[in-house]
Amino acid sequence: MAINYTYPSKSSPTTADDFLIIDNADANKPTKRVNIGNIVSLGVSQVTGISPISVSPATGNVVLSLDTVPVIRGGTGLTSVGSAHQALVVNNGGSALEYKDVTIIETVKNVAASTITKGTPVHATGWNESGGVAEVEPADATNGGTNLMPCIGLAEEDIAAGEVGPIIVVGVLESITTNSYGVDVGDVLYVAPGGGLTGTRPTGTNIIQPVAVILKKAGSGGGVLQVASVSQGASIPNVQDGEIIVGNASNVGESVAMSGEVAINNTGVTEVTGIDGNVSIQGYRPITEVSSSGNITDEDKGKTLVFTNSGAVNMSLEDSGDFEVGTEIQLIRKKAGDVEITPSAPTTINDSSSNITIKAQYGSVTLKKYATNDWLAFGDI
């Protein structure tokens, strides 16, 4: 039979409470007075009243049917679960629960003299025993004097001087201006020399620490950053002009200038000024063939000039300061033609302005600069 029933609102109904039912299948007694106990005895599967509690007579189980439970009653106040991999956390206002992507948040105390604004990278300066939190100030990538590196996170919101607040160590920071750094989505932001963030990799002796990547480029608080402040700064520093990275006694790379008898610049090794001790040097003199008269120039330094002329040739040696003291040039007469070397004043060879001649075919002479405008020649002369 079909039963329609109406029960006045009551906070705690019992099985002895009466109510009226209309039996549409009974023409003689369409209205009946019954109680909840009568309904259960008829084999009705469950009775639902104003209360969210349902009774199952077959099993004796009590079913609680709810929409949401308010936060003040110990519930979430939510009607659905979040997305995959999200976590249920207390919101920033501490007033409700919400589902959010997993973010590593740390509570810190601002011990600087002014407010640390949202998005500012911070450096830990100590531990607050009473609050059980780290004490922080704005990080500064300037090397030397500041001691405000490395960065441990970015302020998730403004933190007033002397107050505690959250920083993001790893996660997404939303509602922040990101169009003022001169870089685009997917680019890295670093702790800036002087504090704050910069899209330019610090140079010189400044400390390098990437702390975030731009996910959304926007102004007026519409941008989004992916924060990852777990780095202790780049392990290899910037390399200064004319220096190289060398491991120190603590096995840490440092930018240092070469000292002693080697000088370098940013194009590579430019000069070896001397070699101490008994060392083995492997190498050779490049060969340049000469068949006609001409000049010996600074391009011939360290070379072997092989003369292949059949007739006589004359080579002029003029030292205008292009040759360093100690320069050597080897001369070899391969053919029958005579070979003469003429010093051009004020240059002298063997304290003389006279010519020198390679004595015979297959003879060899070495020219060596001894001092300014003063050359020595030895060999087959």
Briefly characterize the structure.
By secondary structure, the protein is mainly beta. Helix content is 2%, strand content 40%.
Q: How are the secondary structure elements laid out?
A:
Blueprint: E1 3-6, E2 18-23, E3 31-35, H1 36-41, E4 47-48, E5 53-55, E6 62-64, E7 87-90, E8 97-100, E9 104-110, E10 121-128, E11 133-138, E12 153-155, E13 164-176, E14 188-191, E15 197-198, E16 210-216, E17 223-228, E18 243-247, E19 253-257, E20 262-265, E21 268-272, E22 287-290, E23 294-296, E24 304-307, E25 313-317, E26 328-333, E27 339-343, E28 348-349, E29 356-357, E30 364-371, E31 374-379
Parallel strand pairs: 9-11, 22-24, 23-25, 24-26, 25-27, 28-31
Antiparallel strand pairs: 1-2, 2-3, 4-5, 5-6, 7-8, 9-13, 10-11, 10-12, 12-13, 13-17, 14-15, 14-16, 16-17, 18-19, 20-21, 26-30, 27-29, 30-31
Contiguous low-pLDDT stretches (5 residues minimum) are: 1-5
Strand content: 35-45%
The tally of domains stands at 4
Main sheet strand line-up: 22-24-26-30-31-28
Mean pLDDT across the residues is 84
Features:
single chain; mainly beta; rod-shaped; disordered N terminus; 4 domains; 6-stranded mixed β-sheet; 381 residues; 5-stranded mixed β-barrel
